[in-house]
Specification:
Length: about 170
């Protein structure tokens, strides 16, 4: 675990100490944010890249943030030393998505083709717009990840088929 060689998913970050008894203030990167309450085990990755598993003793929402207590963090100085630490979890501990659901990380690198078979690019990242998610391709093309544009996601072949014309970029 200390080497951090297995695949992990970033689920939050420690933003500050909370109080004087070692509590940590953190920001959740899960969607919805409350899902951080469900995930574990937690792995702390410090700014130097060192990874260690931590025992979570308590966690609750407080306004827009979350407050956590972990084993071995018993005072404000210890909590302050963890500021900026990323909170990860093993990727294989995530729930298996339904056939029509996807984790963004599983879409990265997939080829995107249109109905004519023209390759439009590969998914570089995803963007949330409020109305729907958008694929950002390595070619600079932005394509909504929603009906009526999204036709098929074939994880086995690594291809996403879309109803999108090459000149719509």
């Amino acid at each position: 675990m200390a080497g951090g060689t297995e695949k992990t998913v970033l689920i939050g970050r420690i933003t500050a100490a909370h109080g004087v008894r070692g509590w940590l203030k953190l920001k959740s990167f899960t969607d919805p944010a409350d899902n951080i309450l469900l995930y574990g085990p937690w792995l702390f990755r410090d700014p130097r890249g060192q990874v260690r598993e931590v025992a979570l003793e308590a966690l609750h929402r407080q306004g827009a943030h979350f407050i956590a207590r972990v084993a071995g963090c018993d005072d404000r100085d210890a909590a302050e030393a963890l500021k900026g630490t990323e909170i990860h979890m093993p990727a294989d501990a995530l729930p298996v998505p339904d056939d029509d659901e996807f984790y963004w990380r599983d879409l990265f690198g997939l080829e995107v083709t249109n109905e004519s078979g023209k390759m439009l690019g590969k998914v570089r990242t995803m963007m949330e717009t409020g109305a729907h998610d958008v694929m950002v391709l390595d070619t600079g093309v932005l394509i909504p990840f929603a009906d009526p544009y999204l036709l098929e996601v074939d994880r086995l072949s690594g291809v996403i088929k879309v109803a999108w014309q090459e000149d719509w970029a």
